[in-house]
Model the fold of this input.
Amino acid sequence: MSLVSLLKKIIHERGYPLSMSIEEYKWLHRIARDAEPPFLEVGTHYGVSALIMHTANPTAPIYTVDNLIDYGGDKPGAMPSDCGILVKNIEQVHLRIGDSKQVVPKLVEEHSFGLALLDGSHWKEDVLADLKNTENIPVVLIHDAGAGGPLDALEIFQSLDIIHQQFEMLPAAKTDLPFDIDVNGLAIIDRRNKHDRF
Ligand SMILES: C[S@@+](CC[C@H](N)C(=O)[O-])C[C@H]1O[C@@H](n2cnc3c(N)ncnc32)[C@H](O)[C@@H]1O
Done:
């Protein structure tokens, strides 16, 4: 099944909203396909992005963290128990409940992640903690990195010189699909050798 068909199925048949634009999920798919497993995610929500990473790289273990703070607003009747519902039966996907500030440090101690997707809290202190806790992961994607979002934290992070690598916004191409949502910006920190970078 193509990525777009999968996203259509999630929206139209299963009724779950997307948090990212189609273009951003395409970038996530492309990057997860070629990244070194295992993968880490902050912000599981219903599991759309975890499902995309799994579809791109089916054998990769994925550890996804959520503190259950954000359910219901975008889907009437949704409950915290809907966290990760789209990936609950996938053996490679491991749901971890808790605040990323507490859970991520333990996970990075136990696993050598090749890719992280940060899409949890957008509070500056939380984003800074997520960035700091993932600073040894070679490829880190940050969603909603547009102005007023985690980009502010990224700038602080850079000016503190905690990371030396540049981050850049992935190009946000438009799509004609009727269910696309606004592009909020997906940034990538790629700490690998130049010739390996996405
Ligand atoms: C925008 S949604 C994630 C969407 C998901 N990545 C996707 O594309 O399907 C953000 C999620 O982060 C969770 N969250 C917010 N603050 C968090 C924190 N401090 N630690 C862990 N999860 C958090 C919320 O409960 C929510 O489910």
Observations:
- DSSP finds six helices and seven strands in the chain.
- The first strand starts at residue 39 and ends at 42.
- The CA atoms of residues 29 and 55 lie 8 Å apart.
